[in-house]
Amino acid sequence: MEATEQNKPKVVVIDSLRSWEHHLTEASNQNCPVVVHFTASWCMPSVAMVPVFEELALSYPDIVFLTVDVDEVKGVATRMDVKAMPTFLLLKGGVAVEKVVGANPEEIKKRIDGVVQSNRVLVA
């Protein structure tokens, strides 16, 4: 059963403020970076980024990937000061350390790599 868990994309859909806080707390407790895709169903660049984001989730198994629909969970978008879709935030310890606005897969990957590298330095 564990092998199938490893093969599916591990993007968690956040459906409430409570879910958001739970996943951030879990990630912080495990010293695990978080990448969040703030999206909206009406935003075509956001929709186009969904498969890219799922692919990134498979490529970085030590990072938590979350998706927040800004229309469904407005409180999270407001709290994180998200004003445009798509917005990608990289969080460490629940604090945003990187922000990419717009559908830019290369830039998102570059920022994730930077966070992964700094995390390895901290652990080493």
TrEMBL record:
User: Which region is the signal sequence?
Assistant: none
Highest taxon, organism lineage: Eukaryota
Domain Thioredoxin as annotated: residue spans: 1-117
Q: Which SUPFAM superfamilies match?
A: Thioredoxin-like
* InterPro entries in the record: Thioredoxin-like_sf, Thioredoxin_domain, Thioredoxin_H-type-like
Parts of the chain that traverse the membrane: none
Q: Which PANTHER family match?
A: THIOREDOXIN, THIOREDOXIN-LIKE PROTEIN CXXS1
Please report the name of this protein according to its UniProt entry: Thioredoxin-like protein CXXS1
- What organism does the UniProt record list as the source? Abrus precatorius
State the organism's lineage.
Answer: Eukaryota, Viridiplantae, Streptophyta, Embryophyta, Tracheophyta
Q: Which gene encodes it?
A: LOC113852737
